[in-house]
């Protein structure tokens, strides 16, 4: 009973803007056809987005024999969005225009001793100031800042990160950031950022049920079901990396054994390589990135060890993806993140074959498996998209742009839960 | 982009009626509080349900010092619903009043040679006629007939059943049934019927994200996510029984190896027993039902073999349920169907312990695991509920009650897809 007609209106606003971002310039009639919304609803939502300065009228096109049709386009310079990708060793910040084109970038390195909350917040605030200054954007044009944190983000904006050199437990990050950053803030993790990026700009656009599988050091599955991000009751859905593939199998850092991640995450793939060929020159024992890149080059050159490692990895990954297909029956599975990018098409081909040998016929026939088609960093793009969604969700609740004073008080910040279920 | 404001209105209608069914008599104010809908919306929806004859005004209650509040209740005798549970060896039909109280029952046995589509349809039609006659209900009071088929049901109402003595491949069952049954028809499978029953009358009521795990000969997981049934792109989501628990493990009839079903379905539990104690008197080699019942009695008596078999089964089941918790982060997991009923509380206790040892801390802390609390057959109840939902979804599209002629033509039948996404 938590979805309201306001949620539907917000979702429709997303749908209209998504289509205009992708197809500008475009007529209202085309938007209606693509979104399956009524012409009246589209006219109304387009009017709202024009009033907000997010769209502009850009002329007319002839329609066969009928009246010329008005065209609208994204008002690229109408506003700016900022996406922040915090990883274990760096902070990457991008400022986008409304067409989600990058206008400015800033990077900060995080040294091993610099990951306490105060230092991380200072680095983020510096990088945000830097991109705003570089782009020469007026502060009141910044619709919001999306921040992706490599960990668990709770409803109140607390963050827990358990990584090699990190140990954050329920750090009130949203509050700390709000003390230093004068824009609306939206906080989530990379898994969900990538999923939202695919929904707006990638392979999940226009799909009702999609799964975005992140293959990196850790692995996870972002779930876009019924057209919306599935978060679960405590915003922690998607921990596919910690589902069991081999009962009593390899030890996982989560405490369980045989988790998917231990077979198809970067350290798992290194182990697959070590088990097949312990002395392979492809193996860089202390460097995941170098090993995965060496495997990628090996595949291109037809190196038999690289081919075999990817075949073995694809057998594990295929079984674990077949589980997602059988359980969720999605239209598309997108393979994302740096391991998927490094192993690319050869991995995809092997994975498709492995899945075909395991998934049930009927859901299998309805699922496509593709590589992430987004050419830039999907995490900072997705983080900025959270800010875009947040500002669209708040339309009609209060006009933030005319009351900038409101934005500086933490109690007005949108929390992750606010973004999806405005009350 | 497929959800519309009509969908929201339909979902809100479900929510209001669900609450009134559970709490009759009840005031609009209480309904508004329980559903989180505005008082105006509730007043409007209650008015609609009063006009339809589904609710009645039943008097007033005092409110502290204020005006007396009007009470509404379900108009039990206002209409009837029929639920059909087709299994491999029987057909069980129940006719319910609007409070979902059973008014009449009919059972038909299906002999091994009687499962061709024509014979099954004739048995269903006979049983439906029988319950209408027994209950003495006028034909125009029957809102619809929900039919649960033990197989895959596609969007157009075709059914495939692959069971011991069955081999139905894309049988156009909805069309065949429509030739013999003069009521609106709604077709789906037992997994989804049980899930809808839990949403309306059981442990999923008022929960946004719930998983209903069916433990029978086959096993599956009905997914109620974001408050609605998740069907997937080809209406085949929920095949958790065919996700991999043990890579390269026990051979499954689906062609894969190591599926969850081979460890925790009734034949899998028999195998667990046979591996632990091949000569146990609990084992009835050709009779699943007798074996599971013997295990249930053994648990009550503290039989060490029964205790050990359930411990082993719970270890498998706990790992597979932890997968659902980590991936979907639900509020509640409901254990349903005859195996869960037969092994009851002792199984539940072992399963909770096994899950606690495997699931991630954060989603685990937010998930309850319970036994199905519905005292009657949840499949026929859920099938009837599909008919109730279907009639609520069609309110405002056309008034079926005043144009009964419409109902007899197959092209007006709601298909499974129609029920969830009215266009
Ligand atoms: Zn794990
Ligand atoms: Zn199977």
From TrEMBL, chains A, B:
Region listing for Disordered, in residue ranges: 395-423
SUPFAM superfamilies, A to Z: Actin-like ATPase domain, Winged helix' DNA-binding domain
Pfam families: ROK
Domain of life of the native organism: Bacteria
Coiled coil: none
InterPro entries associated with the record: ATPase_NBD, ROK, ROK_cs, WH-like_DNA-bd_sf, WH_DNA-bd_sf
Family: Belongs to the ROK (NagC/XylR) family.
Record protein name field: ROK family transcriptional regulator
Species assigned in the record: Streptomyces mordarskii
